[in-house]
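Sequence in, structure out. Go.
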Amino acid sequence: MQKLRSIFCLSALFIAACGGAQTAPDVAAEAMSEAKSAPVLNESVITAGELSGLYIDAGAGAPIILIIPGSGPTDLNGNNPMGVKASSYKLLAEALGAQGVSSVRVDKRGMFSSAAAGDSNEVTLEIYAQDYSDWVDMIRAETGADCVYVLGHSEGALMASAAANINDNICGQILVSGVGRSFGEVLREQLKANPENFIIMKEAVAAIEQLEAGERVDTKDMHMALKPLFGEHVQGFLISIMAADPSKIAAQASTKTLIIHGETDIQTAVSDAEALASATGGTLVIVPGVNHVLKHAPKNRRKNIKTYSQPDLPISKDVVDAIALFVNL
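Output:
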């Protein structure tokens, strides 16, 4: 089982990165220079129909951000049962609260606290966009805010842009660790990046091409390591997002844009952030020494992945500062 696990560590946005042991001492030492997150400020449950989230109230008149999670079974804290325990969204929300920025972080439909909202596998880009647009409307109704910022992380960046295209009450889009090209292309690149995947690449590429053509893939005789990635229950969603052009969708949003990307992100490339910035004309912030889960980490793959299981490792203060500056302009 360990070999199959290693095949899919960081293999795609759809399959979350594998966890690891404690972070390397040099990374921990550098990270400790960052300000630790402040205590939770007035955190409470907030709902939009059957969808559920957590609201941190930074006070009257504070700007407010909807934090949209990344791929797969990622919860509102930024964790998932596939080994990610970084608590990145929780730490981000708390750190923003300490800087006077309110936030709502949410669980996706059919998952965790939003389990009653529907089938987590019967989703498309359009369904998610509507969910997050509904969240914006609910947050405005609950808080009295004139508008709400949408912050999407990883795959969530695409969802944030799609929501911004259908809701005029979004103050701005914040695209964090997102992609600026087709998801099929990103998936090929991520699979190829792991040398252990060479035995399944031909079959994987064929499956990606079929999904890109809008056709479902027969998984009956597929290599067992590929079945979790291309399972029949997720193929509708994969077809939906593989047909999307993230840069084009981001550019269509008639609102201001901030793009944030960690320089040591080994899941999505800096070139993705540059593509998003070029398409939108938005503000681009490349954060040195920060990885996909927004923590200080080296480029070395093994050491980088270790930070994914470190909830006590602080989130980058530079990331928090860039977001706080953007929403207060």
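Check: Residues 202 and 208 are 10 Å apart (CA to CA). The chain has a mean pLDDT of 89.
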